[in-house]
DUF4168 domain-containing protein
Amino acid sequence: MKKLFFLFLAFNGLLIFGQNQPPKMPKYKAKNAAGIFYYDAVEAAKKIKLKKEEKISVFSKIIKNYNNDIKNISFLNGPKLNDVELTINSVGEQAFKNPDLRSKIRKMIEDTVIPVRDSVLKKEKNLNKKLEEVLSSKQLKKWLRYQTSQKNKLIPKPPQNNQSRNNGGMMQRNRMGGMGRRRF
């Protein structure tokens, strides 16, 4: 019985200790920050509900051209983006404490990632103009929604520790004025 009690105390202590650790920062991915990703033509055609074969073939040809353009951008800027990614991931925690290092990293990002992002956005606008000619207004609206969902997948989720997840509901109730108060 004593062994079980001590085992329970040790396990409980480990749980409490594990909850107070700071969250780990997600790894920086320069290609995601630059907006470099490829569309799957078959999946996109299903999402926007293309049914006619000729529209599907024109749509997939446009998507393939876009993907090739993005591959060229990625190939030309790949080494620079990898250097930025490696620098940020290796320095990571030190950048929070050192403002000079933080400004150097910001400058590096502005010099490499932002021009790549701008060129990707130009290609994306060109893609949307081409698709505007092919798709109906309803299909174009579905395409734009699909496009934003694909872009949102690139955004890293902020790390959460157990403490913020557990107390979130309680904080929300306190801001609203308690559970049973009138809200006039």
